[in-house]
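User: Hi! I'm working on a homework problem where we have to compare a predicted structure to a textbook description. Could you give me the structure for the chain below?
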Amino acid sequence: MRQLNTRRGVTLIELMVGLVIMAVLTGMAAPFFGDYITNSRLREGGNALMAEALYAQSEALKRNGVVRLSITGTATQVIDMTQTVPATLRTRTFTQGLAADALNIDFGSDGMTRPRGTDVVADMSIAGVTCSSEQRCPRLRIDAGGAILLCGNKLSCP
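Assistant: Happy to help. Predicted structure tokens:
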């Protein structure tokens, strides 16, 4: 009876060829990782801004009065304006160079913006990035009727 001399595993040459192919593919994909990370940060900031707007709107409905969403650029504050001394309900700071247009948005007891009939737009941005079709800066839109919409790219948002 004869034993078969079988080899198992990978030779050094096969391993080196595999590593070279992996390095070439990673090198080709690397420029797109930067865009992906930037777009993820912008989307995260847009979602946070939308969450704050929804929170301010719901607090206005719940408190049956005016609640203000104050955007200072790098932070947001939700302020109860129904009291004689306005009370801050919540504060959120944007991280990683994110910023939004500085403005105040007042929600009335019906969930609509004040003064009645005003549309509001706030754009997200990140330091050192120009918005384009590759770098998608989100836009928060609040219609006069109280509808809140987050567009994926301010360049394509009406």
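For your comparison, note the following. The chain has one helix and nine strands. The radius of gyration is 25 Å. Good luck with the assignment!
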